[in-house]
């Protein structure tokens, strides 16, 4: 039903009754749903009073939990006719963070969330972070457990960062932090004199939360139609078997020369979205299954001061191991990806940034040659160009943040706009509204395929 | 006799005539001997002017430059490094309050010059555990980093206007890390029993909002106790005051200060606590490694 591998996802009904008949567990579903809703409400109210009232300062001191309670809702602007849900977002989230140990010997950090989701009609407990961070010697650090990981220099463009992303959260207007999904990994950092090394081992492959049709619709190349948005995933991919050789390994070798940052990256694992199809012979006919093709990536970054601003460059070579010659139409081809970026504060509290990104497909002739005539219209270009801009303005003693992020691809003739307005009403209360606007000439391009998913959203958050 | 010579030397018209004449002579390469003797003469002359201006600068026998340098060191360079827990109360015109709590670690690379700052936020909730790091470079733009723990993201911030608000308060970046004294012309306006009162005017007036500022510097310890900023219409619009000074490990230290904006009508009060100098901070704390892993032994 959903990909929640590796998450301590407490959607009890999914877990218990997933394989049974739908009608049978409707009652259970309702029961668990209302039960968890009830618990969540009680906990929210309790935590609100316990943790914010000055009378309960002692409780805060003895049990220093922090986090937030947030309600968010969003609505599609022009949903497709076959989209059953007209709302991508309607949920209440309570986050509890706790650092039971935070010393110079080591740290333990916990971050759990209660989520009541009115779109999928489920209540769940998500363990977002739970890690042990150890400092065994002055040049060694080990961070093990459920953690959010990020590296690379792209702004919403990831080349060498192959840690799991949640594009669904991003597209429906959850906070930026939810673009990053956690993974259960071991990160070992070694800090010898000449250069530093990070090694991240993720034993169980953790894919992105890609657009599966659950909340958002997309252009399905199989049916050549806009599909999804029905509350059910229509893209179901087969994940790699649980084997030691199917784990993920990411490396970073980095060094800073003065304030200029340099790094080399390497990744061994799989494409994080199901960019491959596997044909298997069934009893009567062939069946096709989405798979995550094998992938290795090598890349580099440089970032430093440039013309009174920050300049950055990132490059990566994606080597598709399951389609090394590029002649398999069912598997993503290898490609080269690059990014150039520049950021500058134009005037007081007004920052702009520009990025240029390209993806150059290798063995393009073989890719084109492998296409059948009727599929020609959905062929990709050899080079995909993408330009992004970000404009951020702070107002009213930096309590108002106006921002516009825009993606535009001249080659795909499509784009994606993210306007947002955020007001920090008090230290605790934040109000954010914004939009996710997709447009495109063609239905099959990267952003064009989400043309019916444009939405506006609002979030109200109480932080404690 | 000596006084007459002094007057003769200090008179700018005569002096400039001498200098011009000498330049011409050097250009024409007439009498090397003359140029050397003149160099010695001018040297002597400068020395005289210098001693005179010293006398003008005050009874303490300090030049304006010396006073401002000492003030800069007293306010921003105590010890080799330092730590303080800071709590800010930001009050807007309507009297609404916002609070900021953070720990600042500082390390000096060059006395009176390059410094590194590490700022770890505890409050408000939306910035908790966020780290802000600055490498202060008086001669060029600062390098700034920001670490967002929710995303595990280390980002660079374009070095911006040093006179923009620090964390939404009435203090500016420059108030926190110091304004390079070389950016202004300084003039000793007045001396009272307690203060040197300096008037400073920016060398690049277009870059800043103020046209000048007055600085009250404590005569005993060179701590800047008050600054008043005047806008282009010469109206006072901003006041920063030290409300409480404590001596910590022999260094006079501001324990309470206030920034007030007379135009927008708000103010920010800052309390410094757990102040400690010469902790033995090392350079590596001010790097990406410790953005991801706050050095708890200094931050608690």
What does this structure look like?
By secondary structure, chain A is mostly beta strands. Chain A has a single domain (12-463), classed as Porin. Chain A is 12% helix and 48% strand. Chain A has five helices and 23 strands. The two termini of chain A are 34 Å apart. Chain B is of the alpha+beta class and 300 residues long. Chain B folds into two domains: 2-57; 67-299, Clam (outer membrane lipoprotein receptor (LolB), chain A), CATH 2.50.20. Chain B has helices spanning 2-10, 12-27, 32-57, 64-76, 173-177, 288-292, 296-299, and strands at residues 81-91, 97-108, 115-123, 131-136, 143-148, 153-157, 184-191, 195-202, 212-218, 224-230, 236-248, 251-261, 266-277. Chain B has a 13-stranded antiparallel β-sheet. The A-B interface holds A 66-68, 102-104, 107, 133, 135, 141, 147-151, 176-177, 179-180, 189, 191, 196, 254, 256, 259, 261, 303, 305, 308-310, 312, 343-345, 347-349, 351, 397-399, 424, 426-428, 430, 463-464 and B 90, 92, 96, 98-99, 123-126, 128, 135, 141, 143, 148, 150-154, 156-161, 163-165, 167-169, 266, 287-289, 293, 295-297.
Topology summary:
The complex is a heterodimer of chains A (464) and B (300).
Chain A: H1 12-17, H2 22-52, H3 57-62, E1 65-76, E2 89-102, E3 106-117, E4 122-137, E5 140-147, H4 167-172, E6 183-190, E7 196-202, E8 217-220, E9 225-228, E10 237-238, E11 248-257, E12 260-270, E13 276-281, E14 286-291, E15 294-306, E16 309-320, E17 335-347, E18 350-361, H5 364-369, E19 383-395, E20 400-409, E21 414-424, E22 429-440, E23 455-463
Parallel strand pairs in A: 10-14
Antiparallel strand pairs in A: 1-2, 1-23, 2-3, 3-4, 4-5, 5-6, 6-7, 7-11, 8-9, 11-12, 12-15, 13-14, 15-16, 16-17, 17-18, 18-19, 19-20, 20-21, 21-22, 22-23
Chain B: H1 2-10, H2 12-27, H3 32-57, H4 64-76, E1 81-91, E2 97-108, E3 115-123, E4 131-136, E5 143-148, E6 153-157, H5 173-177, E7 184-191, E8 195-202, E9 212-218, E10 224-230, E11 236-248, E12 251-261, E13 266-277, H6 288-292, H7 296-299
């Amino acid at each position: 039903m959903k990909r929640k591998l590796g998450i301590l996802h407490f959607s009890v009904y999914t877990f218990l009754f997933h394989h049974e008949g739908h009608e049978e567990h409707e009652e259970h579903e309702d029961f668990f749903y209302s039960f968890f809703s009830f618990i969540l409400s009680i906990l929210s109210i309790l935590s609100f009073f316990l943790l914010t009232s000055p009378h309960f300062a002692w409780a805060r001191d003895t049990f220093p939990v922090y986090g937030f309670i947030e309600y968010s809702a969003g609505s599609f602007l022009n949903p497709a006719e076959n989209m059953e849900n007209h709302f991508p977002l309607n949920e209440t989230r309570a986050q509890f963070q706790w650092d039971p140990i935070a010393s110079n010997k080591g740290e333990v950090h916990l971050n759990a969330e209660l989520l009541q989701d009115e779109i999928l009609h489920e209540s769940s407990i998500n363990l977002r972070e739970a890690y042990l961070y150890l400092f065994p010697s002055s040049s060694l650090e080990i961070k093990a457990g459920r953690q959010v990981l990020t590296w690379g220099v792209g702004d919403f463009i990831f080349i060498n960062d192959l840690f799991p992303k949640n594009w669904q959260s991003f597209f429906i207007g959850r906070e930026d932090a939810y673009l990053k999904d956690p993974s259960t990994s071991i990160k070992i950092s070694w800090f010898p004199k000449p250069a530093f090394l990070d090694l991240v081992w993720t034993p169980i492959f953790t894919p992105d939360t890609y657009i599966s049709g659950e909340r958002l619709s997309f252009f399905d190349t199989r049916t050549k139609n806009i599909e999804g948005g029905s509350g059910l995933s229509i893209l179901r991919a087969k994940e790699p078997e649980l084997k030691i050789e199917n784990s993920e390994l990411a490396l970073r070798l980095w060094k800073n020369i003065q304030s200029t940052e340099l790094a080399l990256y390497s990744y061994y694992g799989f494409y994080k979205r199901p960019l491959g199809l596997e044909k298997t012979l069934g009893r009567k006919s062939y069946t096709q299954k989405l798979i995550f093709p094998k992938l290795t990536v090598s890349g580099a970054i440089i970032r430093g001061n440039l013309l009174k601003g920050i300049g950055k460059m990132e490059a990566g070579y994606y080597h598709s191991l399951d389609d090394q010659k590029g002649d398999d139409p069912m598997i993503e081809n290898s490609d080269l990806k690059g990014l150039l970026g520049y950021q500058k504060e134009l005037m007081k509290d007004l920052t702009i940034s520009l990025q240029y990104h390209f993806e150059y497909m290798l063995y393009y002739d073989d890719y084109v040659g492998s296409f059948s005539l009727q599929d020609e219209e959905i062929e990709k270009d050899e080079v995909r160009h993408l330009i992004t801009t970000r404009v951020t303005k702070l107002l009213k003693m930096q309590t108002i943040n106006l921002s516009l992020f825009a993606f535009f691809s001249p080659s795909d003739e499509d784009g994606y706009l993210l306007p947002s307005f955020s007001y920090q009403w008090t230290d605790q209360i934040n109000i954010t509204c914004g939009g996710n606007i997709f447009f495109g000439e063609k239905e099959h391009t990267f952003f064009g395929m989400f043309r019916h998913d444009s939405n506006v959203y609002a979030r109200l958050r109480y932080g404690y | 006799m000596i006084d007459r010579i002094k007057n003769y030397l200090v008179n700018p018209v005569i002096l400039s005539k001498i200098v011009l004449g000498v330049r011409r002579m050097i250009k024409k390469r007439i009498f090397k001997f003359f140029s050397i003797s003149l160099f010695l003469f001018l040297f002597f002359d400068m020395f005289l002017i210098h001693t005179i201006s010293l006398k003008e600068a005050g009874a303490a026998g300090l030049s304006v430059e010396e006073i401002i340098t000492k003030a800069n060191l007293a306010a921003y360079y105590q010890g080799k490094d330092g730590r303080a827990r800071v709590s800010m109360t930001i009050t807007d015109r309507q009297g609404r309050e916002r609070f900021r709590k953070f720990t600042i670690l500082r390390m000096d690379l060059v006395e009176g010059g390059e410094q590194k700052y590490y700022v770890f936020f505890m409050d408000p909730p939306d910035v908790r555990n966020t780290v802000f790091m600055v490498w202060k470079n008086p001669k060029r733009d600062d390098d700034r980093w920001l670490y967002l723990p929710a995303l595990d993201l280390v980002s660079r911030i374009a070095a911006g206007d040093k006179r923009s608000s620090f964390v939404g308060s009435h203090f500016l970046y420059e108030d926190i890390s110091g304004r390079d004294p070389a950016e202004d012309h300084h003039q000793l306006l007045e001396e009272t029993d307690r203060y040197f009162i300096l008037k400073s005017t920016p060398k690049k007036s277009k870059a800043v909002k103020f046209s000048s500022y007055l600085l009250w510097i404590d005569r005993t310890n060179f701590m800047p106790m008050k600054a008043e900023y005047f806008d282009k219409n010469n109206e006072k619009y901003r006041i920063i005051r030290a409300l409480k000074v404590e001596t910590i490990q022999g260094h006079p230290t501001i324990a309470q200060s206030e920034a007030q904006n007379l135009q927008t009508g708000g103010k920010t009060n800052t309390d410094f606590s757990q102040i400690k100098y010469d902790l033995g901070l090392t350079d590596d704390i001010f790097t990406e490694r410790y953005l991801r892993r706050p050095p708890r032994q200094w931050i608690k």
